[in-house]
Design goal:
Chain lengths: 234, 234
């Protein structure tokens, strides 16, 4: 579940999603005059998400930059990156893979590929197989799933420990107000729910874990996680 | 260099330091009716730092709790833990050892022991030897120092990367105002300077690294790092 769409929903900014195959990202970026977000082996690398705002003419690439753009351009309502927290929010996004998302990526990897359209599935499969040096089905065989789920579960508990510093009854990373760190956490929850379903053991375990913290966060943020047109998650 | 003394200096709260040997921490805590900060093997564990505030009668244990107490009791001036940042500050303190301080602890370990008084040196030596399962001199032999310094140096650069999210000309973790995360970073800098000296290769390398970030942070915070009575560091 993409951060930038949750952010747009939190901001209440209407938008239309256009799905782009991996191989079309560079041509589209060049057509829209969007800058590369980074480089790979010295060459410019064009990435999604990318937003184009018809009300200002701006094209913005990279989900954190999009969040900052939305705060600056649509200052009403929720502030995604409250003043003075840029480095903290960046740090959290940086540590999240080793704590949580790398375990969940492996756990879901064989389910992600067939959920893409054929062009993108092929690209995803080849890129991951090159990265891990293994056929997709062998990157994380079923025998590893229990351990991966345990590691992800411990990652959630670790974050719960940090959030306990806020004291009782605080739902969000910054206490009473949602911010970018909550977008990141809720997109992990949404991702887990999409690939496992609300009736799965994984979802049920998480919703009762860590003194109900994730159930409360989901309850507060689910309304921002709908797809285009307000469609609810499975 | 202890976080709580930098915090007291930032708050401008006058204080007197009493040095306590490891073996005297528990009896002193019991005498002052100070709570244990945690447990070890089921038994209460009494730790330093501990402050006793004669103006309120409060006894507070644990450096983060001391910071929160100082903000609540002396709200003027610098706020150590700005509202909404408790979890972020806690996360930073939690990730700092794996990035930075565990490498520096090993690098300095044979220099720390003889800087303590004999009772504490003996306790420190035994505790570390038990933890690492090696005589103190063999925990991090000189042949490992170059690699340890490189790891610490990379840890600083990693934090620099997060701080770059604040944009240009921002000295502190939260931008224009110092907070608890800066206390943690500056106490690492002070520690490094105490054990290496201002003329050391390590200090000079760090002061020119990462686009001068650490030199600027030290410049802004050095005034809070003096010892009792305003004595400057070596």
């Amino acid at each position: 579940m993409a951060h930038h769409r949750i952010a747009l929903n939190m901001k209440g900014v209407p938008y239309k999603t256009i799905w782009v195959d991996y191989c079309d990202i560079e041509p589209l970026s060049l057509k829209l005059d969007a800058p590369p977000s980074t480089t790979r082996a010295g060459a410019p690398l064009y990435t999604l998400p990318l937003i184009q705002d018809p009300s200002t003419g701006a094209t913005v690439v990279d989900s954190f930059a999009i969040a900052k753009y939305l705060d600056a351009t649509y200052p009403g309502g929720i502030t995604l990156v409250p003043e003075g927290t840029d480095a903290f929010q960046t740090m959290f996004i940086d540590v999240l893979p080793s704590l949580l998302t790398q375990h969940l990526l492996l756990l879901h990897i064989t389910r992600i590929a067939p959920s893409l359209n054929p062009h993108s599935e092929d690209y995803f499969r080849r890129a991951r197989e090159m990265h891990f040096g293994n056929p997709l089905a062998e990157i994380a065989p079923v025998s590893t799933h229990e351990a991966l789920w345990k590691q992800a579960f411990e990652g959630f508990s670790h974050v719960h420990g940090w959030l306990n510093a806020n004291g009782e009854c605080k739902v969000f990373f910054m206490g009473h107000k949602p911010s970018w760190a909550d977008v990141a956490l809720v997109s992990v929850l949404a991702w887990l729910r999409i690939y496992n379903g609300r009736e799965s053991r994984e979802w049920k375990e998480l919703m009762t874990a860590d003194e109900g913290r994730w159930a409360r966060l989901w309850g507060a943020m689910e309304k921002y996680v709908h797809r285009d047109g307000g469609e609810a998650l499975p």
